[in-house]
Design goal:
Strand order of the largest sheet: 3-2-1-4-11-10-5-6-9-7-8
Distance between the termini: 46 Å
CATH class of the largest domain: Alpha Beta
Shape: globular
Number of domains: 2
Oligomer: single chain
Number of strands: 11
Mean pLDDT: 88
CATH architecture of the largest domain: 3-Layer(aba) Sandwich
CATH topology of the largest domain: Isopropylmalate Dehydrogenase
Radius of gyration: 20 Å
Largest sheet: 11 strands, mixed
CATH superfamily of the largest domain: Isopropylmalate Dehydrogenase
Low-confidence stretches: none
């Protein structure tokens, strides 16, 4: 599939646990499979040395020099205080200057958020950005936000998250009228804390397909397409979901080995198991969009492989070309006093 894409993506080529190796391979594959143009930001010598291992379209890949690297141990403030020439800061700068439409990075997530907020700011009417992650459900998928950008939120923030999540699911996944819910401790309107109770009143007044409160168990059941919560709760949900998915696959493998007939039948079950693994594999979505900033940003898992980077580049391109930010701003304007 070599679909024409007009968006230019700035990739932090030095970010992530796997560094240049996964980033370069993912970028090359994105240009080949999707026809996306990528700017590789980082140490030019290292990048060109790694690029030499691949056959690629030079019109689709370019290199932009950056002298420094933000590590996972660096404080988020380092990106704009001590390391202004880092690959992350330079990549965000390319978006701010209009030379790229989006940034993709598997680096320090706190630094990515800090750099994006400093250089790109938030969209009009958005007070705080949110990290949105896609979780698999029995019926399809659900976007949960926030999962880490804001550990403490106000009701207005959850209202904004609902608007942003609604637009993202409509534009990126084609769900015409996403079901929006607030993550709480019970389905009844009266259940929850001060944050969720007040947010309920705000979201209920919108034209969203609001279904009220949802519980944690409702997420994998596919009860809602968009679930909003503060970043502390959302991050716990995300990490717990990842842990349960990994545990289940290990248990399946362990139990199957105990039963000779089941083990002998594994070749016949392999297709189903492979499809199941694909449904819960984070690399299929590439990374989590940072919604609400005045520019597109995909934050990848630190251990992202080439497949994850490739798909993150694709999702970043989609967000730009489908004008997700513009549509969020238009929707937000409807609710301004």
């Amino acid at each position: 599939m070599n679909t024409k894409h007009t968006a230019v993506i700035a990739l932090d080529a030095m970010g992530g646990d796997n560094g240049i190796i996964s980033n370069i391979e993912g970028a090359v594959n994105a240009t080949k499979k999707f026809g996306i143009t990528v700017i590789l930001v980082g140490d030019e010598t290292q990048i060109k040395s790694e690029l030499a291992k691949y056959k690629y379209d030079s019109s689709k890949i370019s290199v932009h020099q950056a002298k420094e690297i933000i590590t996972m141990d660096d404080a988020p403030s380092s990106v704009f205080r001590q390391k202004k020439e880092s690959s992350l800061a330079v990549a965000v700068g390319l978006v701010a200057n209009g030379k790229a439409g989006a940034i993709v990075s598997a680096g320090n997530s706190g630094a990515i958020m800090a750099a994006s907020l400093l250089n790109l700011k938030t969209l009009p009417q958005i007070t705080r950005p949110a990290i949105a992650t896609i979780l698999p459900t029995i019926t399809g998928k659900c976007v949960v936000l926030d999962v880490g950008a804001n550990v403490s939120c106000k009701p207005k923030n959850l209202f904004e998250f609902a608007i942003m999540g609604n637009i993202y699911m409509k534009e990126i996944f084609g769900i015409e009228s996403p079901k929006v819910g607030i993550l709480s401790i019970g389905e009844e309107k009266s259940k929850g804390n001060e944050l969720t109770l007040s947010a309920y009143d705000l979201i209920e007044k919108t034209n969203l397909n609001f279904i009220g409160n949802v519980e944690g168990r409702d997420i994998p059941q596919g009860k809602a397409d968009v679930v909003v919560c503060d970043g502390f709760v959302g991050n716990v949900v995300l990490k717990l979901s990842e842990g349960i998915a990994e545990m289940l696959f290990k248990l399946i493998k362990s139990e199957v080995k105990k039963h000779p007939i089941a083990w002998a039948s594994l070749p016949f079950l392999w297709g189903a198991l492979r499809d199941l693994r694909k449904r819960v594999d984070y690399t299929e979505y590439g990374g989590a969009p940072l919604l609400g900033i005045n520019g597109s940003c995909i934050i990848c898992h630190g251990g992202s492989n080439a497949k994850a980077i490739m798909n993150a580049i694709y999702k970043a391109s989609e967000a730009v070309e489908k004008n997700v930010n513009q549509k969020i701003s238009i929707e937000m304007e409807k609710y301004q006093n």
